[in-house]
UniProtKB/TrEMBL annotation, chains A, B, C, D:
Stated family: Belongs to the CsoR family.
Subcellular location: Cytoplasm
Recorded GO MF terms: DNA-binding transcription repressor activity; metal ion binding; transcription cis-regulatory region binding
GO CC field: cytoplasm; protein-DNA complex
Native organism: Kribbella solani
InterPro entries: Metal_Tscrpt_repr, Metal_Tscrpt_repr_sf
Top-rank lineage group of the source organism: Bacteria
Protein name in the entry: DNA-binding FrmR family transcriptional regulator
Keywords noted in UniProt: Copper, Cytoplasm, DNA-binding, Metal-binding, Repressor, Transcription, Transcription regulation
Gene3D superfamilies per record: Metal-sensitive repressor, helix protomer
């Protein structure tokens, strides 16, 4: 089945439920920020919440990345050939975007 | 009125509409991420979207911070005394949290 | 005297000795990195040292920035006028560069 | 010979000369910062140089990391077994340190 294959290829599907829970919590943080702005909360308190949401997004991306290395990159390395190289470059580009964001 | 005073104290109220628009767009990005995870999208594409949402949060916090400096910190400096010092320290702590998140 | 004026304008001069000590320590970390590369140390250990040096540079910049806000920005705010606005914008740009680096 | 083996294991040895050149340039930037502090240069200009040095360190670490993935992690994956898992976890921890620094 397509979904099972995807589970193998993408690596993160096993953790899908936990990922969705995390993203829903982050969505809640963003909605909390909207409430704070609507209620004219003090800027520093808003900033503290923005930092918390940013950190939560970052932890999420680090988890995704580790799963990607553990599954997609390792499997491509085992198959060998140019695909392994391509996966490493692609992962490195994603890491650079994370580090710079 | 409390709200008018808050508007003066917090500085960002004038930009309230634009802030709420931004936060709603970020909320949309987070919901987009949930859809991507649900549809087993490729991890690297999910990561690219996470980086985009992180950058959007960061730009939002930089804007809030600039408004805070331009209003709360500048006004406290003009009133002088220990409050000015306290505002500078508070802003510096918020900057440190941003830089480290 | 020019130096005394500079001390007032730049704010960080009082902490000059401590800043120079910090920068010399960071220079030592960078030279330590060169030795590690020369001795073919394990990449992960090199990366750990690079992170330590990056964090040290970041703390240094956060300290500089706090001094800048406490002196240059506060004094410009007290003098008032367009200079205060300019200083806030300049500080905000520096913060944005820090957050994005 | 030990060094030749290390060259294979660490991956970055082929790029040793270019790495050392980069680190020497960063060392020069740090010494330039010391001169700026000694000469009481304007804080914002010092901060701009600190951001440049931080970015240079970051690019260096991203390059090291890519080489590490391309060599150590890929080779461990090809050998298989628990070593591959360990390498992925170790690389992920290094990435987390980078992202958070």
């Amino acid at each position: 089945m397509a979904t099972d294959e995807a589970a193998e290829v993408h690596g993160y599907t096993a953790e899908k439920t936990s990922h969705l829970k995390r993203l829903r919590r982050i969505e809640g943080q963003i909605r909390g920020l909207q409430r704070m702005v609507e209620e004219d909360k003090y800027c520093i308190d808003v900033l503290t919440q923005v930092s918390a949401a940013t950190k939560a997004l970052q932890s999420f991306s680090l988890e995704l990345l580790e799963e990607h290395l553990a599954h997609c990159v390792v499997e491509a390395a085992q198959r060998g050939g140019p695909e392994a190289e391509e996966k490493v470059r692609e992962a490195s580009d994603a890491i650079a975007r994370l580090v710079r964001s």
